[in-house]
Write a structure and sequence with these properties.
With about 260 residues, this protein is an alpha/beta fold. The protein has one domain: Spore Coat Polysaccharide Biosynthesis Protein SpsA, Chain A. The chain is about 40% helix and about 20% strand. The chain is built from 9 helices and 10 strands. Strand 2 (about 35-40), helix 2 (about 45-55) and strand 3 (about 60-65) form a beta-alpha-beta unit. The longest helix is centred in the last third of the chain and has 25 residues, at about 230-255. About 35% of the residues are buried.
Length: about 260
């Protein structure tokens, strides 16, 4: 049987330092039936030139250039709207996949008839040096469990595009991926974990996700306003997030 097409979704903004490595990790996949849609969020550096060099070498790669800087949610949604694959997979412009990522995850999705899956990842420093920090992957996760702690790394997610229909990421600057997973689970889907390291997440200094205070504020906004929980219930979920975040920082500083 013909292997299903996978649409790789990559937003980019001033990503000249790392995007070549990210693209090459897709080209290095043992699974070859993929398309890569890079949506450039009006970069002011050499990102577009670097991407164009890869496009000249590989027809499976294409770029969409936004006319104004709009954020990752709009960039990812734009790519999803243009995707042709049965599956969509997310890879940010500073992260990296291991060569068997797509082949193993597509097999996992196909054999179990899944809509939503995610895998384990390892954290690395900016220079690519690996840390001892690995994500934890439960066999499956429900809405209630995900509200307490987001164990799903965006770079590991694969979705059945046909099954999720018209669902898209909410237009917020951070945590839009977390909000998207919650929406899918709230609407009846279940996320299934493949407990194998298939991706490398880059810890980039001064990135949006590295600003813990901003992420905390966005998490509160997510619980209280986007998901619409009462103050007390939002505070309950936030307390789980806050405690885990502190413990994670302590653990990472010990093991690194």
């Amino acid at each position: 049987m013909k292997k299903p097409l996978v649409s790789v979704i990559t937003p980019s903004y001033n990503a000249e330092r790392f995007i070549a490595e990210s693209i090459q990790s897709v080209r290095n996949q043992t699974y070859d039936n993929w398309e890569m849609i890079i949506v450039d969020d009006k970069s002011t550096d050499n990102t577009v030139k670097i991407v164009q060099r890869f496009i000249d070498q590989d027809a499976r790669i294409r770029i969409i250039r936004l006319q104004e800087n709009s954020g990752s949610a709009i960039a990812r949604n734009t790519a999803i709207d243009q995707a042709l694959g049965k599956y969509i997979a997310f890879l940010d412009s500073d992260d990296v996949w291991l060569p068997e990522k797509l082949s193993k995850q597509v097999q996992f999705m196909e054999e179990n008839n899944l809509t939503f899956s995610f895998t384990k990842y390892v954290r690395m420093y900016e220079d690519g040096t690996l840390t001892n920090g690995y994500s934890k992957v439960p066999k499956k996760i429900t809405y209630e469990k995900l509200m307490k702690h987001c164990v799903i790394g965006c770079l590991t997610v694969m979705l059945n595009r046909e099954a999720i229909g018209n669902e898209r990421m909410v237009n917020i600057r951070t945590r839009q991926d977390y909000a998207f997973w919650l929406t899918l689970l709230r609407k009846g889907h279940t996320a299934y974990g493949l407990d194998e390291v298939l991706s490398k997440y880059r810890l980039v200094e001064n990135s949006i996700s590295s600003n813990k205070l901003k992420v905390a504020k966005q998490n509160w906004n997510l619980y209280r306003h986007i998901e619409g929980h009462t103050f007390i219930k939002a505070a309950w979920y936030f307390s789980h997030y806050a405690i885990r975040s502190v413990l994670q920082v302590i653990k990472f500083r010990i093991v690194k």
